Amino acid sequence: MCNLAFKRRTLIRSKIRAIIGKYLDDRATPAEEQLLTHWLDVISAEGTPSDVLTSGDKEQLRRKMLQTIRQRTGQPARSYSIWKRMVAAAAILLVVVAASWWIIQQHTSRPVAWLELSTGIGEMKKLVLPDSSTVWLEGNSRLKYPGHFKDKRDIELLYGDAFFDVSPYPKSPFTVHVDSLQVRVLGTFFHVRAYGQLPIEITVNSGKVSVSKHDQLMGLLTANQAMRINWNDYTFLRMEVSPLNISDWMRREIVFDNMPLRSVLHLLENYYRVKFDIESVPDMQITGSMPATLLPQQVFNILEELTDHQVIVEARGGNKVTVRHK
């Protein structure tokens, strides 16, 4: 149940108990007695869960309590006090259960509206979800999420690159759906990359993450571990990686951790409006980082350095970029 519904239910319970307490001490105002009477009228008319009290029981309780409120005289002090407390205790149970049930019904019956957040090439957006979890969505990405959570906290990364800071709710796992995969956590920092041209990559900064395909467990990841998954056959590779740094992420650092050069170039296409011709790219791994705010020519210069001058980059025809041997 979301925090809003919980706070609302707690507030109603607190208010009911306060009024009942004043009533027991003969301090309730006429307006408060009228409010208590109205609550009982509503409960008798609309009903409560069937296993609490029957309609006849509720009506009998309502009449007896109204009689007690209006009379206030005619009984010995001791028996009157005990009777009041018995009736009030029953009223508290009845009203609290009814109010809670009504709130739950209102919340669970509300249809879930699914929303979508997308980013353009080179753009980053921050999203705070209904459970206070935070998502940073990188360039050329799409995320689908509900307007409010019910029993589950499920969202879907349709395409792209996202970093998640998940609020911990032990009884409600947080699940990111990527294609037919489920990335499930309780509370942690983790990163999911799912661009179509690149393998799916899941990296954990803190906490623990389970990765499943159609709910069949593929593996567990803890801090500084990653899983790289092929789209075609879902074969995967587990690896140790350098710690993710959220401050680096916020500074828009593009990090390459033992990444094939072809994948590096495909990744850069989501940060810059360029298309790489990669037919002649050598089979080599890249480790390093660069700011996402650099100009394209600066990126090309860094690529030459990262590849130890094994390749050069030439710009052709505006956005067309060719990578070839030196």
From TrEMBL:
GO terms for molecular function: sigma factor antagonist activity. The chain crosses the membrane at residues 86-104. It holds the Pfam family FecR. Residues 254-313 form the Protein FecR C-terminal domain. The keyword rRNA processing does not apply. Keywords: Membrane, Transmembrane, Transmembrane helix. The keyword Coiled coil does not apply. This is FecR family protein.
